[in-house]
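Table S2 (text version). Query chain:
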Amino acid sequence: MNDPQNRSDKDRQARRRGRSSAPPRIEPLAVLPIFMKLHGRRVIVTGGDAPSAWKAELVRAAGAAVTVYAAEVGEEMEALAERPEQSGFGTLEIVRRAWALDDLANAALLIGDAATDGEAWALKCAGQAAGVPVNVIDKPSWCQFQFSTIVNRSPVVIAISTDGAAPIVGQAVRQRVEAVLGPALGAWAKLAERIRPTVNERLAIGPERRSFWQAFAARVFGPAPEERMEDDLVSEIESIRTERPRATISLVGMGQASGGEVTGLTLGALGALQSADCILHVEETPSAILELGRREAERRVIGLDGDLLQAILRAVAGRTEAGQSVAVLLPGNPVSQWPELATALEDIARSSGLSNNNPPAIADSSFGSGEAYVKALLEHSGGRNDRP
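Corresponding C-alpha cell output:
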C-alpha cells in the first residue's frame, strides 16, 4: 500500500532535482543593457568637437539638461546649441572653458572627450570622486558605461551592443532590425501606455492581463492604430473580465536543435514558449531555446523514461486549472516521435465535452484546454490528481 506521505516526499525530492539540474535562464552577458531616465537630469559633456556634439545630441534627445564645457567649440556643437526648444527634448548650454571637479555636482552622467590616456584617467577619477558614471568617447577601457547602437521607435527603444568587439556587426544588426520593424510601432507603444492604467485597474494579474497584451502585441507590426482603436481595446478588456481564463497546454517540438541552435523552432513553437507560465523540458534542451521563454516562467526538467503522459499531467494539473499556460518542449517532432502520447491527448480532447465553449484546438501539435480538459486527462489516466 502506498503511503501518501512518502509519495509526497518523493515528489518534492524530484522537483528539487529538476530545479537543480535545470540550466540557467540566461547565458552570460558581456554587458547589462540598462535604460536610464534622463528627463530633466543634468548631464555633463566635455569637449566641443563632432563626437562630443553627437553624444550631447543623443542625451538631449532623451530629455537631459546638457551642459557642455569646452574652450573651443566646433560648428556641429554650435548648431546644436542654436536649435529651438522642442517638446520631448532636453536643453543644451555651452560653457566656454575647461571643466572642473565642482562642475560635476548633481550630475547624472559625465561624457568626456580625451585626447590622451592622462586626460581619460582624470575624467574617470573625477567621475568616481563625484559618484557620476563616466563615458570617455572612443576609449572603452576607461568607460564605466557604453553607448549602444539604437533603433528608435520611441517609446520602443532597442539597444544593440557588441561590447566594443565589432561595431560593424552592431550596425548590421541594426539594419536588419530596422527593416523588420514597421514605422507604426511607436504609435502602438504610445497607445499601450495610454491604455495600461485601464488594463491594470480592470484585469487581474496573470492570465487575464497576459491574454489582453498578447492580443495587443499581435497587432503592432501592422498598420498604425485607428482613432477608434482605444475604444475597441476597452471593449476587449470588458470581454476578458467576463470570460473564464483559458489555459493552454502546448506540445512543442524543437526540431533537431542541438549545440545551442534554435533554427528548428517554428513561429508557433516560439509563440507557445513566450506565452507559457511553465515550460517542461528534457535535460538536454539547449539553453538558447529555453531563453526564448518568458524570464519569469518556471522551467522544469522532465525525463523521457517512464510514463511521459503521467509526468506531464502531474506537472500541469494545478496550473491549467488556474488558467495558466504550459509548454511541453520535446526534441524533434513530438507528434511523430511519441505518437502514443499525441494520440492519447487527441482522444481525451475529443471526449472532454469542451466543444460547446472552449473546444480543444488540435493543430500544429498545440492543444487548447480549460479546467475540464485537464480533469479529463486525469480521469483518462486513472482518476488521480497528483499535484506537483
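Notes on Table S2: The longest strand covers residues 107-112. The domain at 248-380 is CATH 3.40.1010.10 (Cobalt-precorrin-4 Transmethylase; domain 1).
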